[in-house]
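Weekly structure sync - notes
Attendees: PM, LS, DV (DV joined late)
Agenda: review two folding runs queued last week.

Item 1: First target. Sequence and structure tokens pasted below for the record.
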Amino acid sequence: MRETSAKELWQKLEEKYMTKSLENRIYLKKKLFRFVCRQGISMTEYLNDFNKIIADLMNIDVKIDNDDKAFLLNPLLDSYDHFAHTLINEKTEVKYDIVSAALMDNGYRKKDKQAHRDSSFDALTIRGR
């Protein structure tokens, strides 16, 4: 509250919340390696949460290779298991951008399929009367 410039305020916030201490590095790395997809969240939310952890690590100068980011997306729900094998099969290189875009597309298709299934179920119920 006492800072008068944005630069000074940013530096204070960085010192307080983004320390580059060993303890903070270990905490964020554990958070990344234990990160799994929770049941009931969208793929958009999952990728946003994942990217936030990656950004926090980058802010404290922890470098994560693009290929490693793609493989860290591995702990998805069982419903994505077939998708992951299909995506990685016969690839010599797995890139994070390709994997995350494919996951988003797959998530949208699943959502549309579920919405279509729900609406067709309602139509069948109405006809049954």
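Item 2: Second target, run right after the first with the same settings.
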Amino acid sequence: MKEIDNEKHEKWMRLAIEEAQKAQQLAEVPIGAIVVLNDEIIGRGYNLRETTQDATTHAEMIAIREACQNVGSWRLEESQLYVTLEPCPMCSGAMILSRVKEVYFGAYDPKGGTAGTLMNLLTDERFNHQAHVVGGVLETECGQLLTDFFRELRLRKKKLKKG
């Protein structure tokens, strides 16, 4: 098993959290992602599903798309992806297809996580590529963003019903 440099991973996850906060400013579910190559950010993204009305505009998909454009290749073989919430099947698939080397996520997703919770697509040896996966990086902070967002959303909906 690979030695984990918590300080480095926390630094990158904090930058993914900054991306999530951009989504939150737009009333989007606060999920953020960054792609890192050679200690440099090559892709950033945050959830835009409500804004775009496009189911594929998850933080990871946007970050992977930008990273591929920045390196001029669909292969991200030596890259690391940091995301504030455990990836869904679509995003895990994109990580496999783009050959992301390592995936670090914050909060676990009991309803849709496919990096260990419901299944682990990223390490499934039936695929032609596997990624090293570490979950729970700044898990409390990442989870709190989501908890606060959904609590606020429920309060707004409740006020609308009463109003």
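Discussion on item 2: DSSP finds five helices and five strands in the chain.
Action: LS to circulate a short write-up before next sync.
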